[in-house]
């Protein structure tokens, strides 16, 4: 089976301060993940707000993360775009700066057909040589769904080594894990379903909740990889409420506010995203209190 990593990766937030990138906090966030043995660190994924981050800042974020992480975890860079040409440019930059792999979301807004989707990934893959790519399926945000049949076709591209699946469709997840068995890795892109993914044969997760609880998220995955499903379920059950709360508003609004409550960084977020309302702030704080003294 092809894969970039086995275990738990974090979809890392990008901390902002006074309109710029807060590199002091970014360094602390990365250290926190490394201390908790996170297997992969994804920068500039959806949770990292790449849509409102300049190309200059993206380059600096990747360089900073690579220097900080070294070989202690896999550095995975989000390089997707709705323009194939732009995605190739992003991917070339990430490769040049030392990324261990790429997370490439499906094109958004222009809503390509399936033949265009496959060609999109083929061209990006060819442009970066042997650098591993994880396709990212999140139809609720992009309007494009990678079906199991298309995922199977993508698995024929040598350096497309996995798919982050975030459709939320259980029937599709079952079909996907079955179709890709022994071909390439499936990663959970939905924290609430991490346990289900793992029992179906996934190789790990790319997690939002891991920003604040990396040890617990990794525990669920590692226990499942070692076929200890009973203990994994006990840990997953403890995470049920917080996994739900991290999505009471549009990601990464809740997790960024949670990180601010934990003094990990400021809660600053870029428009058109905005701070959670008071009701959701209270829900987030209540969920955190099960794990932290606030």
Number of domains: 1
Backbone shape = globular
- Major β-sheet strand ordering: 1-4-5-6-7-8-9-10
CATH class: Alpha Beta
According to DSSP, the number of beta strands is 10
Tally of alpha and pi helices? 13
The helix-and-strand class reads alpha/beta
The whole-number mean of residue pLDDT values reads 97
User: Which fold name is given in CATH as the topology?
Assistant: TIM Barrel
The helix/strand order is EEEHEHEHEHEHHEHEHEHHHHH
The percentage of residues in β strands lies in: 5-15%
The amount of helix comes to 40-55%
Note the main sheet. 8 strands, parallel, barrel
Q: Please give the radius of gyration in angstroms.
A: 18 Å
- By CATH, the architecture is named Alpha-Beta Barrel
Going by CATH, the homologous superfamily would be Aldolase class I
Distance between the termini: 44 Å
Low-pLDDT sequence parts: none
Describe the structure.
- With 294 residues, this protein is of the alpha/beta class.
- It has a single domain (7-224), classed as Aldolase class I (TIM Barrel), CATH 3.20.20.
- Helices cover 44% and strands 14% of the residues.
- The protein has 13 helices and ten strands.
- The protein has helices at residues 23-35, 55-69, 84-96, 114-127, 139-142, 148-154, 170-179, 194-199, 214-225, 229-238, 240-245, 253-261, 278-288, and strands at residues 7-11, 16-17, 20-21, 40-43, 74-78, 101-105, 133-137, 160-165, 185-188, 204-207.
- It is globular and about 50 Å long.
- The model has no long low-confidence stretch (mean pLDDT 97).
Layout of strands and helices, then pairs:
Layout: E1 7-11, E2 16-17, E3 20-21, H1 23-35, E4 40-43, H2 55-69, E5 74-78, H3 84-96, E6 101-105, H4 114-127, E7 133-137, H5 139-142, H6 148-154, E8 160-165, H7 170-179, E9 185-188, H8 194-199, E10 204-207, H9 214-225, H10 229-238, H11 240-245, H12 253-261, H13 278-288
Parallel strand pairs: 1-4, 1-10, 4-5, 5-6, 6-7, 7-8, 8-9, 9-10
Antiparallel strand pairs: 2-3
Helix pairs in contact: 1-2, 3-4, 6-7, 9-10, 12-13
